Amino acid sequence: MPQRPALDDLLHAAVSGVGGAERPGQVEMAKAVAHAIDEGEHLLVQAGTGTGKSLAYLVPAVAHAFEAGKPAVVATATLALQAQIVDRDMPRVADALAPVLGRRPTYALVKGRRNYVCLNKLEGGFPDDEDGLLSVGQVDAAVGRLGQEVVRLREWANATDSGDRDELVPGVSERAWRQVSVSAHECMGGKCPLVAECFVERAREAAKDVDVVVTNHSFMAIDSFEGRQMLPEHDVLVVDEAHELVDRVTATITDELTGAMVMTAAKKAGRMSENTAAMDEAGEMLAQALEPLEEGRMLGVPESVGLALARVRDTARTVQSDLKPPPGQEVDGARQIARAAVDEVHENAERILEERELDVVWLNRDQRRGPVLRVAPMSVAMLVRDKVFEERTVVLTSATLELGGTFDAVAGTIGLRGEGAPKWQGLDVGSPFDYPKQAIAYVAAHLPPPGRDGAGDDTLDEIEQLVRAAGGRTLGLFSSMRAAQTAAEVMRARFGDDIPVLCQGEDQITTLVRQFARDPRTCLFGTLTLWQGVDVPGSSCQLVIIDRIPFPRPDDPLASARSQAIARMGGNGFMAVSATHAALRLAQGAGRLVRRADDRGVVAFLDSRMMTARYAGFLQRSLPPFYPTTDKKMVLAALARLDAVAPPPVAVEEPALRSLTGARADADGTEHPRPVAVPPPAPASSRSAVAAGHAWTDEQDEELRDAADAGMQLDELVDHFELPEETIAARVDQLGLTIASGALFD
């Protein structure tokens, strides 16, 4: 086992290699991470923007991997940070540390199976999905966009080195991608005839021999809960963007059940079981039992629903037995897909019937799918404690881990407080930025508190004045898509061509952000994704507008259940759940402004409760220490001065092709994948309709109808269309369809 060089030498080499200068916070964090790894002690590190935190954990992670002979795992919440680590940070760190370590550190990007093309399915090893598009593509590429997409996928699959969907530019529809991909449950595993050529297996095999594995929170969580079988053996886990961990874990283990899901599973089993008719009837029974119920949380499973769920569970168990292959026969693709669907139905029905103490069960009603029964854990704290923090050192880091001036709120949600909690340390290394001199936190205290009817004329006038003073350069963060769209429409009418206004949902998020970053006169309005997923340093973003305090919806079943549980124990449910949620979002939103030492600007809060409410102090302490004011004239003058002297915008980096390990094909010495000629995106149909600011084409509408028929969930469509939930939901409503959706802000 090689002996690693001193951390100071490694950090100095890495910082020099990336052309930077060592920062006190970065050095302090790197030493704390190294100490935690050496002592086997968990660590929470708050590191403000500009600290260089990725370098501060990557260097000690590489050093440990070099010494221990096993990789360190880095899990992030967003694709943007994964790309930053794999495309920018690790290549530079690897080049810089190679002379010191005696070899170049290696790294890999690991994703879920659905992100890769399945060669067995491509070769006909699985039954075609709903409309047999593979055969359509084989026979006639001119039948339409979907057939052409499948032909493109075949050509790309023969050329790609990685099989990673993100490499395919422009992308394809979700419906076409389903023809060439399988879920983890549908995969045949070692029994697949093409397992030796499988992109997923090759990528994961390659990851076993690297020093740093980069993945996402959800994949890491599934791996932890299922026995760490997908990630290589490791004893160090770094969780970046750790403020998102609880929500990502909760989403990963949230289940749902509908009568249609049961009947679809029975249909997939088909002639492979003699009991599918009984299972189909159980699905109808469940749909009928759910039909008269009202939306909202269930404090107990009603008798009629319980009887239907028991029938679903029992018939699914019988079909499960029937789906076992006859002695001496291997599982084929059709049988594996049927087993996956029936297993899901059985497991979800059984879970709801168990009425676990910490599970929250609720009903949503959709126009097309009908009533949808959902179940999620009220708290994942003990699960994270037992499964994530066991048998490895975990370092959690983010720019927003201290809320209200303490780590307690975040630590409690991940199982690091209370009896039996593992040992951990908290550290705030601050930020190298001079926040009071670089940024102003302006509260429009003269505005009335926001109501439920959207922004009033006074608020819209305030937005106009701020944006005009800034000369554009504005990122507008809104608590609902409706508010963002309304503000965008009004501002476009008032500004004309002088100041372009983009709105989330009108194009892919990455495209909108690049357009915003390139043109300093442009504004970008949106919600959710933009609150924490935008990194636009420089003069293109000198004003961030936050329309209201982003509390969770009052009818959110999980938030209300958590609040009530805390209140029953004598705590303050509002402060522990709603105020903490809002503080985290506000800190993330405000953090969009200052991304470098030379950034200057204003964060404008258009919610006067930031000054007047009893919880205002808690929210204020969660924000970066900007210079606070309620003086509107001073703020307008400051924005005008910044606009007058603003430098040119920062250059925008474009997407890259990837190798088998997920690294940029030009960053680690590997060859570029062979280029494939791809057509430009299809033009919008002349019959396109606008919903939530996005022009929907006939082809996209067809995809939505197929998604509704297939029982797909909204998060899958969000990933495919790269549009916000609200935009997709708006078009779904126009078409009279139903797609399962998650909770949104008011």
TrEMBL record:
* Ranges in a coiled coil: none
Q: Where is the composition biased (Basic and acidic residues)?
A: 665-674
Q: Which reaction does it catalyse?
A: ATP + H2O = ADP + phosphate + H(+)
Source domain of life is Bacteria
Broadest EC class assigned to this enzyme: isomerase
Signal peptide region: none
Residue segments, region Disordered:
665-700
Enzyme Commission code: 5.6.2.3
- Ranges for domain Helicase ATP-binding: 12-297
The family database entries (SMART domains) matched by this protein are listed as:
DEXDc, HELICc2
Listed cofactors = [4Fe-4S] cluster
**Keyword annotations:** ATP-binding, Helicase, Hydrolase, Nucleotide-binding
Q: Which GO terms describe its molecular function?
A: helicase activity
Family, per the entry? Belongs to the helicase family. DinG subfamily.
Q: Which PANTHER family match?
A: DNA REPAIR DEAD HELICASE RAD3/XP-D SUBFAMILY MEMBER, REGULATOR OF TELOMERE ELONGATION HELICASE 1
Q: What is this protein called?
A: DNA 5'-3' helicase
